[in-house]
Design goal:
The complex is a heterodimer of chains A (about 110) and B (about 120).
Chain A lengths: L8 E4 L5 E6 L11 E6 L6 E4 L13 E6 L2 E6 L8 E8 L5 E3 L3 E5 L1
Parallel strand pairs in A: 1-9
Antiparallel strand pairs in A: 2-6, 3-4, 3-7, 5-6, 7-8, 7-9
Chain B lengths: L2 E5 L3 E2 L5 E8 L8 E8 L6 E6 L5 E3 L7 E6 L4 E6 L8 E9 L6 E5 L3 E5 L2
Parallel strand pairs in B: 2-11
Antiparallel strand pairs in B: 1-3, 3-8, 4-5, 4-9, 5-6, 7-8, 9-10, 9-11
Classes of the chains: A mainly beta (about 110), B mainly beta (about 120).
Amino acid sequence: QSALTQPASVSGSPGQSITISCTGTSSDVGNYNLVSWYQQHPGKAPKVMIYEGSKRPSGISNRFSGSKSGNTASLTISGLQAEDEADYYCCSYAGSSTVVFGGGTKLTVL
Amino acid sequence: QLQLQESGPGLVKPSETLSLTCTVSGGSISSNNYYWGWIRQPPGKGLEWIGSIYYSGSTYYNPSLKSRVTISVDTSKNQFSLKLSSVTAADTAVYYCARRVVATGNHYFDYWGQGTLVTVSS
């Protein structure tokens, strides 16, 4: 069970859109539509932003959206705001009630 | 509002066993729709899933840690616990407990504790 692959960092200006990729294998991302995305601000616990690939929990802005193609899931944040600056982690179901996280991506709002 | 709170020693000696407890308040740990789990984060690094438990006692572990991990549940106290044996400096991390939704086939973490830093050092 290897960690999912995410870019170490992405950046964008306020108002722009960015996309963070999360690449797994046919044993996790590719085999299940069960990727979740978490936002983590420094010193804080992670917060779920997307689950089941593209669903948003109550209270999460519709600026956050998720998708998947093959073994790669993606998180898109539109209309970037300063408060979106944080670390983002993907997580996929990997069978037998196990899950695997990505390495994390640091989002910088320029 | 559901709350999770980790507790346990912040310093553990190498080769010893790390022990943490998560106390759940504002809801019952004995629910069909959730697993209860542990995730850790070494300083400056990413998240790593350690394992999860169902209120019935069924456990699920990260294969890379399975030989050293034991997760247990005490439904009478609304708590679940983590034991990690033979620790080394590489086990130094912030340890989070979290609720994992498993209803309707989902698998995601919706409530997290604040995290507790455990340092492995002599």
